[in-house]
Amino acid sequence: MKINYISFRQSITRLVVPAMAVMMLWSCSKTVDEPTAGINTPSSLDEKAGTWKPYVLASSGAIAVAEPKEATSADYKAELQKLKAATEAVTPQQREQINYWGAGAVYRWNEIARELAARYNSPPASNADGKYPVPDASKPLDDPKFPFANPPYTARALAYLSVAQYDALVAAWNYKFKYNRKAPSKNDTSIKTLLPVSDLPSYPSEDAVVAEASCVVLKAMFPGEVPFLEAKLAEHKQSRISAGMNVESDITAGSELGKAVGAKIMARAKTDKMSGANNQAQTASMIANARKIGVTEPWVSQEFPPRPPMLPTYGFVTPWNFDSATVVALRPEAPPIIGSPAYQKDLNELLDIAKNQTREQARIASFWSDGVGSYTPPGHWHRKGAELCHENKYSEVRTARTLALLGTTMQDAGICCWDVKYWYYYPRPNQMSSKIKTSVGLPNFPSYTSGHSTFSGAAAEVLAHIFPDKKKEVDDMASEASVSRIYGMIHYRFDCEVGLSSGHKIGGYAVQRAKTDGAE
Amino acid sequence: MISSLHQKGLRLLGILLTIAGPISSAYAQMPNDAIYMGKKTACLAVSYTHSAWDQYWENTLKRENLNIGTHTTQSVMPMLAVGITKDFNAIVAVPYVWTKTSAGNLKWQKGMQDASLWLKYRFLNKSGFSLHAIGGASIPTSNYIPDFLPMSIGLQCKTATARLLASYRHQSGIYLTASGSYIFRSKITIDRDSYQADGKLYNTNQVSVPNTYDASARLGYLKKAIQAEGFIEYGACDGGDNIRRNDMPFPTNNMKATMVGVYAKFQPKNIGVNARASHVISGQNMGQSTAFSVGVLYQFRYAKEAKN
Fold first, then answer.
1. Contacts of B107 in chain A (CB under 8 A)
2. What are phi and psi of B43, to 5 degrees?
3. Cβ–Cβ under 8 Å, residues A156 and A127
4. Would you place residue A26 in the very low, low, confident or very high pLDDT band (cuts 50, 70, 90)?
5. Residue numbers of the domain that contains B207
6. For A115, which of B66, B201, B204 is closest by C-beta distance?
7. Nearest chain A Cα to B85, which residue?
8. Which of A218, A332, A475, B122 is the most buried (most CB within 10 A)?
9. How far is CA B217 from the centre of its chain?
10. Does the beta carbon of A18 lie under 8 angstroms from any beta carbon of chain B?
11. In chain A, what residues touch B18 (CB-CB under 8 Å)?
């Protein structure tokens, strides 16, 4: 049939043009939907948390907090008046900040720390001499930035953050129930709060405690972010005043306590041997040891120019839930001898994936890649842990405890895994066959055992204990994280299976602590 | 680090923007020229493109990367241009793309990329001067990985392009053509549920990819069987962020490029051949690519004259 020119042009106008207009409009939407965390309304006050066992503090009363002024005192009444005025003058921007921090103090500071980890997770570039400059803590914003927040670094930063929050909150809970100052809106019912109020005593402010303790740790871990962190700190504290939740003296007492606890925690950090974790001078003897115990072809960097391996002496850093002798005792059996049938079998699996990687394998590898520019596997699991606490309406102190158990076990996992990696100094599959290329990026350290698997096994062990109804989910996640490194073609199956199993064992030590810390 | 830097470059450059990055405008008639197929005639073209770079711009820093060596993108693209009327043509194309590097450990990628449809309409034609409205749309045809840059073969965006093109052709056969376009790009979904962009950490698998725009000018000669031209093209994103220091590229990057090139076609009868070469002379967040393509064209009538 002949196409009529006129009618054809009309049909363009009628159909094609509107269709394209719709398509353009739809293309215009650039908004991405991020999950939003609602305001947390804890299901329990956890009144006894002042008796829970701290990590670093000798006891929950180790740092003194002065008794607050009486509710009937003129000073306190003046504070209430000031608070009332502040709530009546709240701006829309402050209301947004109130809701943001209302999701939870520990929840938000953990999220901030994960974001910093991702932003600082960049390996230094090589210079003109083919050398890799080492980041300098005294010049954090120079190139290369300090820190290079790789998985062991981030595991430690998040462990210290969560421990500081937990110890500070245990101390705060002790004083809250010792002094029993009611929430401002319960002392003066004319104060209209912008967040839900519970029977939790308000002195010292749990938000101020968490904010200050977090800030002390994060300033030390990310020294280039001091202005950013101080702005967050001020915003967080102000949000509690604007919301009518805490008077000034609640905040001040919480701030002092948080700072003091943060300092105690960072005193441990100064002596945990992290400063010696990048001792490249030791690699020669490590390689000699690996040869002696039968690794015929030790790992070499696959980068150009060759990059020194990541933190070769991180295995000597002080763990949290056991001692350094246990790190050695937990070291798994040797990997298969290179060239043996067991080795060849797992290498062949990788050669097959190299040829026939499925889209689903690529998806799993990418989902768990947690590589350069990400919050790393410890960050991935902290996110999961924080979300579970939020879903379960945990109190601040119980959230902090969960993340401290999780954070410490993941640093323990990192320490144990790094010990194993540099004990066996086993080559990556990509070193053994150039046919094996990665779809996720090749880490620059020995292969056996898989860090992802060890971190994930430990994390799943702890989360399954705390959230028994989620045991299957977190175990499946850990297994997927583990196998993702095979699909991404950077680990042999034996790296992953042994790493996952080690991780579960390491997690068992944190579970043991959880059973006896007074919270269960 | 580098990724489809090149590929994107070409894309930005307005060459079949939405289609394969490295696909060039090697055809009898293209979405960026003033040439039309006659009514009831069509042209089937198949082209091969080879594009490579060994230096790229990490943000504005020009560098090499010994863990990439030379990055190469190749593609084969069948394209069909159909003359619906003498002033209204439709073009469809879909490329098969594969990438590789000469060094490093990144897995090479390959696959069918994005199918595109273009509609070209000449709404003014007077004394050698013509104006054209061109609309394009593209849609991914396979589930390739969009954020494994620079190895990914594309970005998984759906796109819609609005282009205005003006041309003047002298009786001698010399012509001058200029065009400008705006390309809308959809959000994409990646396999990860966390990524960094704009100095911020996003906790979602959705990525907002910036729109792009481009401009081009071409000066050439077209008479009978011969066409030859030189061109310059500029393309950039409407927003977007930069590659972080020593990090990989990401679909949110603001890729910019200025490219120069030459194009020639010889089509004595129904069958013809064409060739194209281009080189990026400046850029940001992409590779400094040099590309070559060759194609064969076959022109035919797809319907007889109307009987009634």
1. 354, 357, 437-439, 489
2. -135, 125
3. no
4. low
5. 5-301
6. B201
7. A5
8. A218
9. 15
10. no
11. none
Closest Cα of chain A to B193: distance in Å? 7
Mean pLDDT of all residues in A29-41: 88
Q: Report which of B28, B24, B26, B29 is spatially closest to residue B10, judged by C-alpha positions.
A: B24
pLDDT at B226: 95
Domain that holds residue A419: 277-516
Element (H, E) at B252: none
Given B107, B108, B204, which is nearest A32 (Cβ)? B204
Q: pLDDT value at position A19?
A: 57
A167-196: per-residue pLDDT in tens? 999 999 999 999 999 999 999 999 999 999
Decide if A67 touches B, using CB distance below 8 A. no
A236, A101 Cβ separation under 8 angstroms: yes
* Residue A75 in domain: no
What mean pLDDT, rounded, does chain A reach? 95
Q: Which of A119, A123, A363 sits opposite B196 (nearest CB)?
A: A119
Interface pTM, i.e. ipTM: 0.92
Domain count, chain B: 1
**Distance of alpha carbon A166 from alpha carbon A408, whole angstroms:** 12
Q: Residues with Cβ < 8 Å from A429, sequence gap 6 or more?
A: A347, A350, A436, A447, A489, A490, A491, A492
**Contacts with B192 from chain A: Cβ below 8 Å:** 366-367, 369, 374
CATH code assigned at B111: 2.40.128.130
Query: Which pLDDT belongs to residue B147?
Result: 97
A107/A227 same-domain check: yes
Q: Closest CB to B194: pick one of A124, A354, A374.
A: A374
Contact A32 B162 (CB under 8 A): no
- pLDDT of A436 higher than 90: yes
Q: Decide if A118 touches B, using CB distance below 8 A.
A: yes
Distance CA A389, CA A399 (A): 6
Q: What is residue A121's DSSP assignment?
A: -
C-beta atoms of A437 and B244 within 8 A: no
Percentage above 90 pLDDT, chain A: 93
Within a domain: residue A369?
Answer: yes
Nearest to A24 among B148, B160, B247 (CB): B160
Q: What angle do the packed helices A493-516 and A471-487 form, to 10 degrees?
A: 150
Amino acid at A131: K
Co-location of A365 and A486 in the same domain: yes
Calculate mean pLDDT across residues A397-417: 98
Selection from A204, A212, A202, A256 nearest residue A233 by Cα: A212
Would you call B160 and A34 a contact, using CB atoms and an 8 Å cutoff? no
Q: What is the pLDDT of residue A366?
A: 98
Contacts of A438 in chain B (CB under 8 A): 105-107
Q: What is the pLDDT of residue B22?
A: 31
Task: Identify which has the larger pLDDT, A390 or A2.
Answer: A390
pLDDT value, residue A29:
74
Residues of chain B with pLDDT under 50: 1-28, 306-308
Q: Which residues of A touch B148 (CB under 8 A)?
A: 366, 439
Are the Cβ atoms of B145 and A362 closer than 8 angstroms?
yes
The pLDDT, as a whole number, for residue B11 is: 43
Predicted confidence band at A5 (pLDDT cuts at 50, 70, 90)?
very low
Look at chain B and count its residues: 308
Q: A-B interface: how many C-beta pairs under 8 angstroms?
A: 129
Q: Choose among B184, B60, A451, A269: nearest CA to A442.
A: A451
A1, B115 contact by CB (below 8 A):
no
Nearest to B66 among A32, A305, A380 (CB): A305
The phi and psi torsions of A87 (rounded to 5 degrees) equal -70, -30
Nearest Cα residue in chain A from B187: A30
When divided into structural domains, chain A yields a total of: 2
* B174: in domain: yes
Query: Cα(A250)–Cα(A260) distance, rounded to whole angstroms?
Result: 16
Our CA-based measurement puts residue B205 at a distance from the nearest CA of chain A, in whole angstroms, of 9
